[in-house]
Amino acid sequence: MDVAEQDRPRDRERERRGSRDRSVYFRPVEVEVKDNLEKAMRALKNRMSKEGVLQELKRRRFYEKPSVRRKRKEREALKRLRRAARRAQSK
């Protein structure tokens, strides 16, 4: 029995379970670089922060149970409502 035949059961098991691809897909964030690279890096950082790319990557790093996800979404919604109320009050 050669090495290739020994690996076959493991390969079949891997195929049965399916690929556990944990990659995250975001739409590309582009920043135009004219003269100053540092300025472009700051613009990229600001744009990524506004779009929540880094927060999303951090959140998806580990599995989130459905109950935890639900509580997080409720917390975020409450935060948005409070922020909107504060903005409406200041006008």
Structural overview:
The chain is mainly α and 91 residues long. It folds into two domains: 37 residues, no CATH class; 28 residues. Helix content is 68%, strand content 0%. The protein is built from four helices and no strands. The longest helix is centred in the C-terminal third of the chain and has 25 residues. The radius of gyration is 22 Å and the shape is flat.
Low-confidence runs (pLDDT<50, min 5 residues)? none
Tell me roughly what share of residues is in helical segments.
Answer: 55-70%
Task: Identify the overall geometry.
Answer: flat
Instruction: Tell me the total number of β-strands.
Output: 0
The radius of gyration over CA amounts to 22 Å
N- and C-termini, Cα separation? 79 Å
Mean pLDDT: 82
Structural classification = mainly alpha
How many structural domains are formed by the residues?
2
> DSSP helix count?
4
Let me know the largest β-sheet.
Answer: none
**N-to-C order of helices and strands:** HHHH
Proportion of beta-strand residues: under 5%
Give a quick rundown of the structure.
By secondary structure, the protein is mainly alpha-helical. The protein has helices at residues 3-17, 37-51, 53-59, 66-90.
Keywords:
91 residues; mainly alpha; flat
Q: What topology emerges from the helices and strands here?
A:
Elements: H1 3-17, H2 37-51, H3 53-59, H4 66-90
